[in-house]
């Protein structure tokens, strides 16, 4: 059997995904002419693709502005892929309360097969750019990444850690492992500027009855607003909410 033989594919499906990928890459609503220019799809075919994708809920068309953006159906698919729909619905009211209380952005991240991703965001009113959106994969050295590494135990996590740490010196790897021990004891992780300059974050865990990690709540804001230790009022407020959530999943 020739294992190098190309697998048969459906070209039109690839083209439809290309349109979605283009909107993701541009990270903003696009007009028809912009999509046509970026994808190179002929106008007659592009009309058909956009109409089909919009009808299926994979794209949303703003009739007033004449722009296309990602549709709500993609969020459903994303939630199903990471198996977190129940977690998201349970955590969202807490994210809202944390954001309102702290005047900072609160987000939920969950583990997938190749690292943590953002599953939901409740933004502060001043519109801080945190450099991420729902579906963004987070690096190991982010506060959520550290929380996953500290509490999530599986072969996938070990492989991810090895891959993410491969460029660090042995001394830095040892310091990182010591930091994970502290995180397990305090239920608190901090990271300075993991994605965007002048923006830092701290994370706390959501645990279940097996003391396994369900997800992590992360608070994001400008460096001077984010506490680096669990003893502050903001840290304690978020930890209290995380413990309450954990108890709802059976944690004691």
TrEMBL record:
<keyword id="KW-0238">DNA-binding</keyword>
<dbReference type="InterPro" id="IPR036388">
    <property type="entry name" value="WH-like_DNA-bd_sf"/>
</dbReference>
<keyword id="KW-0804">Transcription</keyword>
<dbReference type="InterPro" id="IPR050707">
    <property type="entry name" value="HTH_MetabolicPath_Reg"/>
</dbReference>
<dbReference type="Pfam" id="PF01614">
    <property type="entry name" value="IclR_C"/>
</dbReference>
<dbReference type="GO" id="GO:0003700">
    <property type="term" value="F:DNA-binding transcription factor activity"/>
</dbReference>
<protein>
    <submittedName>
        <fullName>IclR family transcriptional regulator</fullName>
    </submittedName>
</protein>
<dbReference type="InterPro" id="IPR005471">
    <property type="entry name" value="Tscrpt_reg_IclR_N"/>
</dbReference>
<dbReference type="GO" id="GO:0003677">
    <property type="term" value="F:DNA binding"/>
</dbReference>
<feature type="domain" description="IclR-ED">
    <location>
        <begin position="73"/>
        <end position="251"/>
    </location>
</feature>
<keyword id="KW-0805">Transcription regulation</keyword>
<dbReference type="InterPro" id="IPR029016">
    <property type="entry name" value="GAF-like_dom_sf"/>
</dbReference>
<dbReference type="InterPro" id="IPR036390">
    <property type="entry name" value="WH_DNA-bd_sf"/>
</dbReference>
<dbReference type="Pfam" id="PF09339">
    <property type="entry name" value="HTH_IclR"/>
</dbReference>
<dbReference type="GO" id="GO:0045892">
    <property type="term" value="P:negative regulation of DNA-templated transcription"/>
</dbReference>
<dbReference type="InterPro" id="IPR014757">
    <property type="entry name" value="Tscrpt_reg_IclR_C"/>
</dbReference>
<feature type="domain" description="HTH iclR-type">
    <location>
        <begin position="10"/>
        <end position="72"/>
    </location>
</feature>
<dbReference type="InterPro" id="IPR011991">
    <property type="entry name" value="ArsR-like_HTH"/>
</dbReference>
